[in-house]
Amino acid sequence: MEYIIIIIAAVFVNNVLLSQFLGICPFLGVSNKISTAAGMSGAVVFVIALSTLVTYLLQYYVLIPLGIEFMQTVAFILVIAALVQMVEIILKKISPSLYQALGIFLPLITTNCCVLGLAIIVVSKEFAFGGDPHMLNLAEAVVYSTASAVGFGLAMVLFAGLREQLELNNVPRAFKGTPIALITASILALAFMGFAGLV
Amino acid sequence: MSKLNLITKGLIKDNPIFVLVLGMCPTLATTTSAVNGLGMGIATTFVLIFSNVLISLVAKQVPDKVRIPVYIVLIAAVVTVLQLLMQAYTPGLYQTLGIFIPLIVVNCIVLGRAEAFASKNTVLDSALDGIGIGLGFTLSLTVLGAVRELLGTASIFGMKLIDGDGMLAFVLAPGAFMVLGYLMVLFNMYKSKFTDK
Q1: What percent of chain A has pLDDT over 90?
Q2: What end-to-end distance do the CA atoms of chain B give, in Å?
Q3: Is the Cβ–Cβ distance between B170 and A151 less than 8 Å?
Q4: Which of A83, B44, B172, B190 is the most exposed place for a label (fewest CB within 10 A)?
Q5: Which residues in B have their CB inside 8 Å of a CB on A?
Q6: 3-state class (DSSP) for residue A128
Q7: B35-84 residue pLDDT tens
């Protein structure tokens, strides 16, 4: 039951894109087509699930015992960059078709702030999912961050669908490009606000 | 390019938010009030200046293939210094900005300037470029924060201007997207006055 609450909270209520503003760059950058948006989201889910697992263990078994928590930012970004590179190499070897689909998005993910953001959030914030506020344990942390990544994908695909329709409309010159995308995103965020208080 | 030009270009011509559309995450997330926007702007400017200086110093020694990881580690080091400084001297602001301080590491503006400018120019020019882009970023964030604070809570820099509550939605997520969208429209209209005659 607790995991279902975590998943709903992460996907809808605290949507990474539309209520926490993590990963806005790909949200505005690669959301012109549903297919690219879905490809990017797939790569993000994959990398976030892996990186949270590694950074969580790193935080609790290396940084805290050694008393060097202030190295968190440097350590996490290195782990994420190395992991992305590794995933790229492994995918290329074992599954060329998946690599074809996700390949071009992988290098972009290192600087996607929702990867580093989620890695930091799950080890530094207390959550209260159907109980007292507590630090997440490993399973909860991985479920929370993976579900958040799915929420990222959901918002990306929805937004790409809206933008595909927007292409066909006549938009005033000053609104072309990013401004109209931002205003559309605002309406989407308004819709997601309706989920507040659900959990 | 003259030295003065390096500093002023960030304000309009190369404005990181309205023209280059970089660093959107902190822009939208931390501008709930003018003070928060200003704080985030100054924090990012600090990182920009020091990372630009460091990177322009080492750029010639770093092999081309590993330059991005090297730059990221240098930037992360500067951000860690900033985190420790802010924890010590401005704990309140550090709390409010929260996760977006460590996330300066992955702010595209910082890495973008490192790659596009600091790796090819002298130390002094890189520092000035950091100041210029930082100024543009800070100014944009402060304006965005001020507009959202005004609409959302009817006050500016914490001073109540009108009696009443304001529209809370502007402090929340949808307002961030909407205000930035409309400010960009105004910016485009202002710019097109000069470009097409």
Answers
A1: 13
A2: 26
A3: no
A4: B190
A5: 21-22, 24-26, 28-29, 69, 72-73, 76-77, 79-80, 83-84, 99, 102-103, 105-108, 111, 169, 172-178, 180-182, 184-185, 188-189, 192
A6: coil
A7: 889 999 999 999 999 999 999 999 888 888 888 888 888 999 999 999 99
Let me know: does B113 contact B85? Beta carbons within 8 Å. Answer: no
Cβ separation A116–B174 shorter than 8 A = no
Domain assignment of residue A199, yes or no = no
Residue A58 lies in a domain: yes
Please tell me the number of Cα atoms within 13 Å of B52 on its side-chain side.
28
Q: What is the residue range of A163's domain? A: 2-193
pLDDT of residue B82: 93
Q: What values do phi and psi take at B155, rounded to 5? A: -140, 165
Angle CA B179–B182–B183, to nearest 5:
80
Contact flag B106-A182 (C-beta cutoff 8 Å): no
Whether residue B164 has pLDDT greater than 80: no
Q: Is residue A135 part of a domain?
A: yes
Query: What number is the ipTM of this complex?
Result: 0.83
Number of domains in chain A: 1
pLDDT over threshold 60, residue A17? yes
Comparing CA positions, the residue from B144, B133, B143 lying closest to residue B107 is B133
